[in-house]
Write a structure and sequence with these properties.
The structure holds two protein chains of two kinds.
Chain A lengths: L9 H7 L4 H27 L3 H17 L3 H16 L2 H35 L9
Chain B lengths: L1 E6 L3 H14 L2 E6 L2 H10 L4 E4 L8 H10 L8 E5 L4 H10 L3 E4 L5 H15 L7 H4 L11 E5 L3 H11 L4 E5 L2 H10 L4 E5 L7 H12 L4 E6 L4 H6 L5 E4 L4 H14 L4 H8 L3 H17 L3 E4 L10 E10 L3 E10 H10 L6 H21 L5 E3 L3 E5 L12 E7 L5 E10 H8 L1
Parallel strand pairs in B: 1-2, 1-3, 3-4, 4-5, 6-7, 6-8, 8-9, 9-10
Antiparallel strand pairs in B: 11-16, 12-13, 12-14, 12-15, 13-17, 16-17
Classes of the chains: A mainly alpha, B alpha/beta.
């Protein structure tokens, strides 16, 4: 399992702005949909032993996780893409097992991040960067 | 209002880009989830910019870009590629097709954001600012303290450069060609050491791309194995070429030489613009004297002390890129002038001979400059007769070359002075 930080909201805030809770919430929903779709695609690719399809799905997950500051998932996705391109089936299986919990951790961290910012916003507190 | 088309099959990328773009400039963002959708949108309505992913279903980014470049109505649309793709061949093909910028995901990364801001600033201010190459001033080749990007795949070599040059420059590193391109553009670094061992984007492709995007404003110094130096020089892509070595002292000596030869005087700046400038003057004069006198001319350390006048001075001025006035003057005593005149059968007076000679040498210099892509205008030569040899020594910023004709008591002096128009304007005001 990667030791990278699960999630960092700083980069994200630079794009969407500190004060846009609605956008954050919308992105949280999109992230859930995209990650769920990609994980399903990966599971099917693994079942079909289709490493080309697995590499493409991992490539996509790398992009999605990178976009939202999900460093640990991004690193796992990069490793998965490499392993699939090498047709290293054992490594693909191992990484796929790690991905599920990593995605859950990312979703949890993102949700906490949104909650904290929402709470601060309702308290009228400062809108500085928050690390869950 | 600016219209931007974002083409990416990843929903989160489109979502974030739309948010980012609309925060940066007043714009309308239209989304497409593959290349086919983008082309459909582009045929329906005009766009000022396309931001394009590469790895997409139905129609990839490369296929889309190829069609855009092959379609007269679409080919001028600026395209920014934003991708996680780093396959070397794919990247080279994309860059050859012509893109405004090639950015690596994630969107949230500082570099991608900075480059997008640059592109948007260009879009928003289009028509107001000049091109990069026209507006950038040409500085010296290297200046102590400035940022210097080291682009080389070999970590050991980068480490050597950092350890040797760290005290002199603000060093940045890139471990492949794409990273180098991204950093050089994103950070607007003034100088890049380009190693020959570059992956993803080969050294010469990187150099050509940087030259296209940043004009002479970026200094490119190739670091090549000794056996490849001449071939690298012949590409004409680099401002200087130094030898790749792992011996710290040897490497440092080469950089010191570059620093010495690239001070900030106008002459140094011209020499940085026209590598081999001094050699060009020497060769042109030697060839001329060889042609005229059928004898070898060699540079001499100083003019003979017992020269008798009167003296003839022929000068020609070249205006270089609207930035510098370069004056080349040939000077000799009457005995030499008469000899030149006799040798040039179609001329009779010494002044006519000198006129032709300075015209020929000036033409060679002009060719050396225009072959570097510089704009040069040349004025007619002016010849004057002087009673005495000018006693004032030339400025240290001028280039003075004395020549003797081997086996003959003949002497010719070539003096190059360079004036920055910027400095002239400041003086006038």
């Amino acid at each position: 399992m990667s030791t990278l930080q699960t999630f960092s909201g700083d980069d994200l805030l630079r794009i969407i702005g500190d004060d846009d809770l609605d956008t954050l919430a919308e992105l949280q929903a999109l992230l859930g949909i995209e990650c769920g779709r990609i994980l399903a695609e990966m599971t099917e690719a693994a079942g079909a032993a289709d490493n080309t399809r697995m590499a493409r799905a991992a490539h996509k997950l790398k992009s999605v996780a990178g976009n939202v500051g999900g460093h640990a998932v991004r690193q796992l996705a990069m490793s998965m893409e490499d392993a699939a391109k090498r047709s290293d089936d054992a490594e693909v299986t191992r990484l796929l097992a790690d991905l599920g919990p990593a995605l859950e951790a990312l979703a949890q961290a993102f949700g906490d991040f949104v909650s904290v910012r929402r709470a601060r916003s309702s308290d009228g507190g400062p809108a500085g960067p928050v690390q869950p | 209002m600016t219209r931007i088309l974002v083409c990416d099959d990843d929903l989160t990328t489109r979502f974030l880009l739309k948010r980012f773009l609309t925060r940066e400039i007043p714009c309308t963002v239209v989304e497409a989830d593959n290349g086919l959708g983008a082309l459909k949108a582009m045929t329906r309505e005009p766009f000022d910019l396309l931001i394009l992913d590469l790895d997409m279903p139905v129609m990839t980014g490369r296929e889309t870009l190829q069609i855009i470049r092959d379609t007269a109505a679409l080919r001028t649309v600026p395209v920014v590629v934003l991708t996680a793709e780093s396959d070397e061949r794919e990247v080279q093909q994309i860059i050859r097709l012509g893109v405004q910028a090639f950015l690596l995901k994630p969107v949230a990364g500082d570099r991608a954001q900075a480059r997008l801001r640059d592109v948007l600033a260009g879009l928003h201010g289009r028509g107001q600012a000049g091109s990069v190459s026209a507006s950038s001033s040409v500085g010296p080749l290297l200046e102590t303290g400035q940022p210097l990007l080291v682009a080389d795949d070999d970590e050991d070599f980068r480490h050597l450069v950092v350890s040797v040059l760290g005290p002199r420059f603000t060093l940045l590193e890139a471990s492949n060609g794409i990273e180098a391109l991204d950093t050089a553009i994103g950070e607007q670094v003034p100088a890049v050491l380009v190693g020959r061992r570059l992956s993803l984007l080969k050294a010469d492709v990187l150099a050509a791309k940087l030259r296209t995007l940043r004009g002479p404003g970026v200094r490119l110094i190739a670091v090549a194995p000794k056996l490849e130096i001449e071939a690298v020089k012949a590409t004409g892509l680099y401002d200087a070429v130094i030898a790749r070595t792992f011996i710290p002292d040897v490497f440092e000596a080469q950089v010191e030489e570059l620093l010495r030869s690239s001070g900030s005087s106008p002459l140094d700046r011209v020499r940085a613009l026209v590598p081999g400038f001094r050699g060009n003057v020497i060769t042109a004069v030697q060839q001329l004297l060889g042609m005229v006198m059928k004898m070898d001319a060699e540079p001499t350390p100083t003019a003979p002390a017992d020269l008798a006048g009167p003296f003839y001075r022929a000068a020609i001025s070249l205006a270089l890129d609207d930035q510098f006035d370069v004056t080349l003057a040939l000077l000799c005593n009457r005995e030499s002038a008469n000899a030149f005149s006799m040798a040039m059968t179609e001329t009779e007076a010494p002044s006519d001979a000198l006129y032709e000679m300075v015209n020929i040498v000036g033409g060679r210099l002009r060719n050396a400059m225009t072959s570097r892509g510089l704009a040069v205008t040349q004025e007619l030569p002016v010849v004057e007769e002087l009673a005495v040899l000018p006693s004032a020594p030339p400025s240290p910023d001028d280039l003075l070359l004395d020549f003797g004709v081997v086996g003959q008591p003949l002497f010719l002096s070539a003096l190059v002075t360079v004036t920055s128009r910027e400095a002239l304007a400041a003086k006038a005001s």
